[in-house]
Known about the structure:
The chain is an alpha/beta fold. Helix content is 29%, strand content 30%. The protein has one domain (22-146): Glutaredoxin (3-Layer(aba) Sandwich), CATH 3.40.30.10.
Amino acid sequence: MKASDFSLPDQEGKVHKLSDYKGKWIVLYFYPKDDTPGCTTEACNFRDNIKKFQDKGAVILGVSKDSVESHKKFAEKYHLNFTILSDEEKIAIKAYKSWGKKSFMGKTFEGTLRNTYLIDPQGEIKKVYEKVNPLIHAKEILKDLSSA
């Protein structure tokens, strides 16, 4: 399945399009909120494994509905070395079916689902990871990239 293109600003306000990365593997991951425990764990695991992803020709793009300013603080606080995109209008989040019902402490609400899409250099979605475990997710994707 073809990956949907989008245009979103990063933590510096620079606009990125998915199509800008044609020719590379893309790890497009959606996460609920900057600077929360699970999202921080996931982002730091990507940060700590960035060299391994780069060695496989892959770029990491994180997406949440947080603002550019929130992303900037999050990226600076944790020294994130990859792009995180702000999707306040939830355009890409919804296009990638990463908005939906969630529950926390007995309450049900709508929010960003922790999903990741592995996109090949031709722009095709090769694998979808749903309800990912932030602790092991980076290693899981690296393993799949090794066999791709």
